[in-house]
Amino acid sequence: MLFVWPSLIVLLFLIGYPFIMLIFYSFFRFSFLRPAAGLNFIGLENYQFLLTDKYTWDRFIFTGKFVVMAVILQFFVGVGSAYLLQEKFRGRGVILTLVLMPMMLCPIVVGLFWKYMFNTQWGIINYLLKMLFNVGPIEWLANEHNSIYAAVIADTWMWAPFMTLLSLAAFTAIPRYLYEAASVDRASAWFKFRHITLPLSAPILVLALLFRLIDSIKQFDLIYTLTAGGPGDATQTISFTLYKIAFQYFYTGQGSALAMILLITIICLSTFLIMYMTRLIEKQRK
Amino acid sequence: MAAVHVKNLKKFYGSVKAVDGIDLEIKDQEFVVLLGPSGCGKTTTLRCIAGLESPTSGEIYFDSRRVNALEPADRNIAMVFQFFALYPHLNAVDNISFPLRAQGIPPKKISEKIAWISDLLGLETILKRKVQTLPGGDQQKVALARAIVRDPAVLLLDEPLSQLDEKFRDEMRTELGRLQKSLRVTTIYVTHDQREAMALADKIVLMKDGKILQAGSPREIYENPQSVFAGYFIGSPGMNFSQCVWEGGRLLFQGDQSELSLSDKLATLLSQKDKRNLLIGIRPEHISFSATQRESICSLKIKVATVEKFSQFKIFSFHLGEQLFMGRVREEVPEGAEGYVYFLPDRLRFFDAETERSIF
Questions:
Q1: How far is Cα A262 from Cα A242, in angstroms, rounded to an integer?
Q2: Which of A189, A257, B260, B347 is deepest in the core (most CB within 10 A)?
Q3: What is the DSSP secondary structure assignment for residue B92, as one 8-state letter?
Q4: Among residues B228, B345, B330, B207, which one has the least CA distance to residue B278?
Q5: Helix or strand or coil: residue B302?
Q6: Rg of chain A's alpha carbons, rounded to an integer?
């Protein structure tokens, strides 16, 4: 047992200490930049403020919109592409690698080059839209109504491959003879998808959904480089707000409280999904 | 109802010859069993007939219609798979009625057919249950119902009983035989279990290494195996074999050179064939044991090695030449006893030692 101690101590410091300090600071008015101003205990005042502040709520609502749109789009693109990539065909390996590449890039880099692509005057998106559909130019990032769609598109481009990967894993685990029996019975492709593919891959798809949900709520890097929360605060997700509070204004106490609120929100959402997924798995295992 | 003709079917996977020139003639309403060990090509043949695999070369005809280019859905076949292959989230009724709904049959007719098949297979109690909650035997019954309910031209079964436990297997085997006789549908059944084949088949097609070794009624194959493999594979236990030498009018066993005295008829036949190195074959059920010598020919003095008791018979083993022989009798055989075994002369079979083909 002794040899476990070094790792435990490291873990304690890297995870345990920051976490406990987070909870600690959330009950105080305190700033890292002005430690001399002191540690003022204010109890639940940080939480009270954040939960009743209209501005904060607007950020939550925006994040909700962003997350729902992004995750739904990623789900359809991911599952759809996995469906198309199921069967072996020539060049499948290459195409699969290409499809999965966006996921392997650094979010900051992704945000940057989408920023260039979405540029109103010389971005390639507007160029293609004009050439193919004679539409535009669309003001993507400078327009407060369109910027959310730009963020959703960039996020989907980056993370749909994750859905593709997990869906593909789930699909390939389904035994072929189920599809063969359906072929012999003259089932349509839709019937096979609805009654064989979906039910048998549901637990993994829900798991993938869970991952994407949690990740999207925490989305920061992409927003930071793509829009910096802008224009104004039109694309300011709650994570971005947290960044501002903690590292621009340096309201450490309030930032800690917001981080706690976020954590609790994510835990609640995850619990629901995990319960649903467990129920699905149990139904299947019988 | 359809007759099935397979002409020179070949299926290669790269350099692996799964099926290497198969010719099959299956009569309308016949129950044919493709029998053989794992990897002999029986399932591949079945899947080619079903249309789930495309042959490398060869022709498949249903009646006189060439079906090579047809999809499984267009061949009017039904298939029962080894692992049941039921639609997981539907209940039994929905599983069975699915192919009918896919064909566009009106709901009233569907209900009639469900009632009929449910009565035929005894499914009333499980119709509404989700198939995943059913035990293996019931699942396979549902799979069978799904196949039969659409009145196929050919019914294909791929080792349907291998996933069931012993008791269910015996029940289903009887059920299947009865069913096929009353439905009179052309049936092709794949299995590695020779008892199933012997019990169910009108014709057994014995396969090995992608080729047909022998095709015939169960009785024919049992009584006249054309190869050592056929003798060995059929029967529980299978035929006993030993190397022996026919020399100077005498039959000598390899190893201890003990002699088996033969009837005149047998001796004449062997001299006619004039082969020296032989394999002698005799089925366990055609060997009897007695403490004293009762017959003067086809009888040998032996010592019993082991005895295994089953409910209806006993299997005893003894050394002969270099081999261990098995005998199957109804009466008690004491272990370690010394006595005499008697081989029924009409049941002795002889095979060429090199080619392993039957001489007679």
A1: 9
A2: A257
A3: H
A4: B228
A5: strand
A6: 23
Q: What secondary structure does DSSP assign to A65-85, as a single string?
A: HHHHHHHHHHHHHHHHHHHHT
Polymer length of chain B:
360
What contacts B353, CB < 8 A, 6 or more positions away?
Answer: B243, B277, B278, B279
- Token pair, residue A286, equals 């019988």
Strand ranges (DSSP E) for B220-286?
Answer: 240-247, 250-253, 259-260, 277-282
Mapped onto helix, strand or coil, the DSSP state of residue B222 is helix
Full set of structural domains in chain B with CATH? 4-233 (3.40.50.300), 240-352 (2.40.50.140)
Considering only the beta carbons, identify the residue of B52, B89, B130 that sits closest to A195: B89
Calpha distance A202→A197 (Å, rounded): 8
Distance from CA of B95 to the nearest CA of A (A): 10
pLDDT digit string (tens) for chain B, length 360 residues: 789 999 999 999 988 999 999 999 999 999 999 999 998 999 999 999 999 999 999 999 999 899 999 999 889 999 999 888 898 888 899 999 988 888 788 999 999 999 999 888 888 888 888 888 888 888 999 999 999 998 899 999 999 998 888 888 888 888 888 888 888 899 999 999 999 999 999 999 999 999 999 999 999 999 999 999 999 999 888 999 988 888 888 888 887 778 888 888 888 888 888 888 889 999 999 998 988 888 888 888 888 999 998 888 899 999 887 889 999 999 888 888 888 889 998 899 999 888 888 887
If you count them, how many residues does chain A have?
286
Q: Does B98 touch chain A (CB under 8 A)?
A: yes
How much is the ipTM here? 0.79
Instruction: Tell if the CB–CB gap between B87 and A195 is shorter than 8 Å.
Output: yes
CB contact under 8 A, A186 and B132: no
Mutant choice from A184, A198, A282 vs B, greatest count of B C-beta within 10 A? A184
- Pairing of β A28-29 and β A40-41: antiparallel
